[in-house]
Every structure is written in structure tokens, then in C-alpha cells.
């Protein structure tokens, strides 16, 4: 079984599965949490310079100005009575008898709702635009019960989203529920039997062609009641409700009348349980020349994570056309789950509501594009969070870029377009290794916000200076945010809007494209030749620093004889030994990628039979590293 699993993994992984470049970011504005935050929730308004960070006993409001960040704290402590009651319970975890912020959502232009666990008795406050808590007539902070709005424990999975002033909450408690829990519309919830111990991951608004067709999607893991002996006990689910749902008139009066759910599988139909547990998901809306896509991070029984992509057209079509699981009769013309206004002539009849009451799951299983993952992360890391952006490249073509957070505090920047998936770079912005617990992307300002339990930072989406000042190094990066500016002779950010200037930029994002840099970049001069004289009995090895982890590296002596090199993380090292006897001559290390050839380093090696005074040398990567006594000339 284990060998079959590994074989299937290799079959799925047709794309580059390791980051092409690896950057340690030292200039990003990092804010550290002194004692760490057990629960880190992020909220960011598109176009704003502020980031809201929820933690233990306080809401942090971070304001970014270029490379600086200023912090304002709004204390939100647990009620004394609730804390005392929490600590009196047998087996109470003392650390959880506090107020952990779990929900931060904007209700309207002037109000943000903030909800916390409040030592097991959830409570919500309202924040004005001036970062102050709204107050009642007595001058006290205005607060309401958050029992149905937020989880009671920082460890309970939950999801929340605000749409047109209403808060939608999905709580993983004794009885899992999806609710419209606050706002001007009628408050609704799921029936108890519709969800089986669901653990919620996230939620998203999916706009329809008309406002009344807007849907709210919820992503969660659920107990697999029908699992066989060889199947996993957990399955990933996708649930949706209509924004216009106001409950039934005689049946399902206080419940959703449009709730439907479907199984979400990351893998092929023949092996649906391979990546069965959902870690995170994001819906990337339709952009110009690009369809809406759903991206999810899934885990296997062995802990390996994979990324799957789903067409939102196919997802919505499945909800509109699929049979209902277990229902054998012909469905009525006005199907259960259809989004129609409450007082519409097509509003669901009692007969339709009785169907959805007993059969809320569609029969169609949602499989990814190509019926396989985009790729499987084949390292010791696992993915924890995902956000996505839609980018117009230099040719005005829509490209999808994913940012995937790992359990080691890294971020993978991934180009996903058509059948191509490339991990452009691995970014390391944090001082401490900890799982990425929150991410927010702002396409308007061009920034990515990332948090762990210990640190939070802001990164530019277009960091074109990382790709150096040559055309082909810029082009090989395959970063749709960046292109080579032949007039300015540098790698520059491409505007998000279509314009004549961007069309002059040079890019090569598609495989097997022509050499766009021909004549645009001068020949790159190799590093200074290193002259080395060594004792023929010495043991030496020559390092060649890795510029790209997707390139093919070659050692060549005197322009003809090739030597093998050993990949050891940061270098492709030439090691002399029985299979590669040491010889004098000119040794060059070159890197080849997509038809481009770069000379990385060169050594002029001569053998010296005379006695040489001992000299211990240790030189950093990029120079010569010897475990011998040598003389540098």
C-alpha cells in the first residue's frame, strides 16, 4: 500500500515541486508578539494601510507606512464573572480562561464586529473607524452576546464572513451549525441532522450574475458515515446557502431553505480518499480573461499536503444540475436550493422544502481540474494557509498566483496557469520557525500580510529587485508581476492595468517559448577566476552556488570533459575521488535553464608536487572550500 501511494504521488507531480529560488527577507517590517498568540486572526480592508490582528485579550491595529509599522492596542479582556466561572470548571485549561479574539469582520463602512471567546462565554464588540470601541448611552463599551457568533474556545474550528451587514458564522461545537447569526436579515441556521460533527475551515462569498444570485460557501471536514474499511473516516465538504434566503413560510421557518452540500475530493475518481482532509481554501473570483477558481490545501493520511484547483463554473453547475443523494424521485422544475427572493412567485413550495429538509446533499462529487492535484509538496514541510491573486501579465493575459504558507513559517509563491504550475520562490520573512496561521492579500496596494503565533509582517507582491539586473534572470523568474524593461534596463513591476508601457516589457511565462531576451541583455561576465595550487594527494571539493533550484548544473574541464556534481542543498559540488580523479586544468560550473546558459564560477587548478606549508582554509560558498592544506595564488 505504501509503495502504491508513493507511485501515485510521483504520477501526480508533473510540475516543478520545489521552489526555484529561496529568499531570506531581512527588510520586511516584522512585528513580534512578546509571548506568542495562541489564536491569531487577521482582517484587512482592500486598499487600506491597516491590518487588524486578533489575539489574547486584545485587538491589535497595525498601520503600515513604507517600511515602518505602528501598533495600537484595543484591550478586550474577559469578563470577571465569565473568567471565574471558567476556572471553577473541573479540568479547565487555565490558558483558555481568557478572551481570545476569533472573529473580525466589517459589517458596513463605519463598523467592524470583533468577537472573542470571553473565557467560554463568547462576546462581541463593535469598532468604529477611528479604532475606538463603540459605546452605549452610559459610556460603556457596547457589547452583545456572541454565543452563536463565535466559538467558546480558541481551539474550536470556526469560520465567519460578513455580507451586506449580516454576519454568517459556522461553529464546530457539540452540534455543528452554519448560521446567519447577526444583522438586518432574518437569522437562520442549519438543522442538526444536516451536519455530522463538522469542523469548519473557512467561508467565501461567491457573487452571482445578479445580486439575488449571490451565494455564501462554507468549507469544512466532516465525519464520513459511509466510510468502508479502506476509506478515511473524514471527508472534505463544501456547503452553500443563498444570500436572499429568508427561511420557509410553513416549513423550515427558522432554517435555511437553500442549503446544499457536496463532497470535495482532491485526487482522481479511482482514488478519492488520497487527500481527504481540507486545511484551507480560497475562491479566486472571475477576472478579465480568467474564470473563477477554487484552490484548496488537502492532507493525506500520511500528513503530506497537496494543492487542488476547481473550476467554479463546474462547482456551481453541479449544485444546479446534480441529483440529490438518496432521493429517487424526479426533482421538480424549481429545484431545491435555487436562489430566489422570498416573495418571488418561484419561491420554494412546501413540497420542495420537504425534499431539501431530508436530502440536503448533492450526488455529484466535486473533483479537481485534470482530476489530480496541481502538485504535491514533497518536502518535510506541510501547507497550512492559502491566498490567491489574479494578475495581468505583460501580454495582458490573466495569470493566477498562489501564496501558500507552510508549517515552518515559509511562503511559497506559485504561478498557476493552464497546465503549468511553478513554485517561483520560497520566502522566509520570520526569525522563528512557526506555522503560518493567517494570511491576507491586497491586490489594490500590492501587499501580502502574513502572521504566525509569534510574528506578523507585510510583503510586496511584486518584489522584482530580487531577480537582479539582467534580462534573462528577470525572465527566468516566471513572475507575472515582473518584466524586463528594455528602456530602463532593469527588472520592474508591471502595472495591474493594461497599458502601452507594460506591453514593451519582456516576459516568458509559458513553457517552450522563444528567447525573448535575444539582443536585450549583454553577456554576463563570470566571477573572477580563482587560481588554486594543491598537493596531488590532497582531498578537495569545489562548490558551485545554486542560483536556481530548477536549473541543470554542469562541471566542465578545459571546455570538453564533463564531471558530475553532488547537490547538497546550496551548492552543486565537484568532489574529486575514485570516480573523478583530480587533474589540473580550468574547471567551470555552468547552469542551464529554459535554454539560457550561465557561467557561475571557475577555478584554475594546478598540481604542486613541492612541499607546501600548512594553511587551513575555510571559504564561504561562492569561493573555494577545502578540507586540505593548500596555497591560494
TrEMBL record:
Domain of life: Eukaryota
Keyword Ribonucleoprotein included in the entry's annotation: no
Molecular-function annotations in GO: chemorepellent activity; semaphorin receptor binding
Primary localization: membrane
Domain Ig-like stretches: 526-606
Signal peptide segment: 1-15
Sema domain ranges (all copies): 20-461
Record keywords: Disulfide bond, Glycoprotein, Membrane, Signal, Transmembrane, Transmembrane helix
Subcellular location: Membrane
Residue spans crossing the bilayer: 612-632
Keyword Cytoplasm among UniProt keywords: no
Cellular-component GO terms for this entry: plasma membrane
GO BP annotations listed: axon guidance; neural crest cell migration; positive regulation of cell migration; semaphorin-plexin signaling pathway
Pfam families the record matches: PSI, Sema
Stored InterPro entries: Ig-like_dom (IPR007110), Ig-like_dom_sf (IPR036179), Ig-like_fold (IPR013783), Plexin_repeat (IPR002165), PSI (IPR016201), Semap_dom (IPR001627), Semap_dom_sf (IPR036352), Semaphorin (IPR027231)
SUPFAM superfamilies: Immunoglobulin, Plexin repeat, Sema domain
Family membership: Belongs to the semaphorin family.
Protein name from the UniProt record: Semaphorin 7A (John Milton Hagen blood group)
Protein source organism: Gopherus agassizii
Upper taxonomic lineage: Eukaryota, Metazoa, Chordata, Craniata, Vertebrata
Amino acid at each position: 500500500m505504501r509503495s502504491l501511494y508513493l507511485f501515485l504521488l510521483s504520477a501526480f507531480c508533473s510540475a516543478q515541486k520545489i521552489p526555484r529560488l529561496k529568499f531570506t527577507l531581512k527588510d520586511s517590517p516584522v512585528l513580534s508578539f512578546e509571548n506568542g498568540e495562541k489564536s491569531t486572526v487577521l482582517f484587512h480592508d482592500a486598499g487600506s494601510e491597516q491590518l487588524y490582528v486578533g489575539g489574547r485579550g486584545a485587538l491589535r491595529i497595525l498601520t503600515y507606512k513604507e517600511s515602518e509599522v505602528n501598533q495600537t492596542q484595543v484591550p478586550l479582556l474577559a469578563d470577571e464573572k465569565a473568567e471565574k466561572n471558567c476556572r471553577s470548571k473541573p479540568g479547565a485549561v487555565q490558558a483558555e480562561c481568557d478572551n481570545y479574539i476569533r472573529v473580525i469582520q466589517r459589517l458596513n463602512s463605519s463598523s467592524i464586529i470583533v468577537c472573542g471567546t470571553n473565557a467560554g462565554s463568547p462576546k462581541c464588540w463593535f469598532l468604529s473607524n477611528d479604532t475606538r470601541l463603540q459605546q452605549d448611552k452610559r459610556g460603556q463599551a457596547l457589547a452583545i452576546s456572541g454565543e452563536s457568533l463565535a466559538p467558546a474556545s480558541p481551539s474550536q474550528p470556526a469560520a465567519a464572513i460578513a455580507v451586506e451587514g449580516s454576519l454568517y458564522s459556522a461553529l464546530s461545537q457539540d452540534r455543528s451549525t452554519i448560521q446567519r447569526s447577526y444583522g438586518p436579515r432574518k437569522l437562520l441556521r442549519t438543522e442538526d441532522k444536516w451536519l455530522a460533527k463538522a469542523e469548519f475551515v473557512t467561508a467565501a462569498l461567491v457573487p452571482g450574475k445578479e445580486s439575488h444570485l449571490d451565494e455564501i460557501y462554507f468549507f469544512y471536514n466532516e465525519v464520513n458515515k459511509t466510510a468502508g474499511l479502506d476509506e478515511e473516516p473524514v471527508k472534505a465538504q463544501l456547503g452553500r446557502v443563498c444570500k436572499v434566503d429568508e427561511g420557509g413560510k410553513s416549513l423550515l421557518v427558522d432554517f435555511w431553505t437553500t442549503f446544499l452540500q457536496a463532497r470535495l475530493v482532491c485526487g482522481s475518481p479511482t482514488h478519492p480518499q488520497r487527500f481527504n482532509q481540507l486545511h484551507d481554501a480560497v475562491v479566486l473570483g472571475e477576472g478579465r480573461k480568467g474564470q473563477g477558481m477554487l484552490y484548496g490545501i488537502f492532507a493525506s493520511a500520511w500528513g503530506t499536503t497537496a494543492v487542488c484547483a476547481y473550476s467554479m463554473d463546474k462547482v456551481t453547475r453541479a449544485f444546479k444540475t446534480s441529483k440529490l443523494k438518496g432521493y429517487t424521485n424526479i426533482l421538480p422544475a424549481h429545484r431545491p436550493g435555487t436562489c430566489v427572493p422570498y416573495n418571488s412567485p418561484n419561491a420554494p413550495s412546501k413540497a420542495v422544502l420537504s425534499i431539501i429538509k431530508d436530502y440536503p446533499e448533492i450526488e455529484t462529487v466535486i473533483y479537481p481540474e485534470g482530476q489530480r492535484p496541481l502538485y504535491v509538496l514533497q518536502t518535510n514541510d506541510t501547507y497550512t494557509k492559502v491566498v490567491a491573486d489574479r494578475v495581468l501579465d505583460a501580454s495582458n493575459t490573466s495569470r493566477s498566483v498562489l501564496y501558500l504558507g507552510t508549517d515552518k513559517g515559509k511562503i511559497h509563491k506559485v504561478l498557476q496557469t493552464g497546465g503549468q504550475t511553478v513554485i517561483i520562490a520560497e520566502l522566509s520573512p520570520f526569525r522563528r520557525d512557526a506555522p503560518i496561521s493567517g494570511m491576507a492579500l491586497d491586490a489594490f496596494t500590492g501587499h501580502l500580510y502574513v502572521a504566525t503565533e509569534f510574528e506578523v509582517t507585510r510583503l510586496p507582491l511584486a518584489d522584482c529587485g530580487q531577480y537582479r539586473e539582467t534580462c534573462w534572470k528577470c525572465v527566468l523568474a516566471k513572475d507575472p508581476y515582473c518584466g524586463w524593461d528594455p528602456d530602463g534596463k532593469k527588472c520592474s513591476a508591471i502595472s495591474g492595468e493594461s497599458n502601452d508601457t507594460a506591453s514593451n516589457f519582456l516576459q516568458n511565462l509559458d513553457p517552450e517559448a522563444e528567447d525573448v531576451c535575444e539582443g536585450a541583455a549583454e553577456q554576463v561576465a563570470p566571477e573572477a577566476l580563482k587560481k588554486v595550487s594543491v598537493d596531488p594527494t590532497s582531498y578537495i571539493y569545489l562548490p558551485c552556488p545554486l542560483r536556481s533550484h530548477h536549473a541543470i548544473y554542469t562541471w566542465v574541464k578545459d571546455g570538453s570533459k564533463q564531471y558530475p556534481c553532488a547537490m547538497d542543498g546550496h551548492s552543486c559540488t565537484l568532489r574529486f575521488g575514485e570516480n573523478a580523479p583530480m587533474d589540473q586544468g580550468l574547471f567551470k560550473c555552468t547552469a542551464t535553464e529554459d535554454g539560457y546558459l550561465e557561467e557561475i564560477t571557475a577555478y584554475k587548478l594546478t598540481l604542486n608536487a613541492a612541499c607546501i606549508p600548512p594553511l587551513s582554509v575555510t571559504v564561504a560558498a561562492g569561493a573555494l572550500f577545502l578540507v586540505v592544506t593548500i596555497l591560494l595564488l
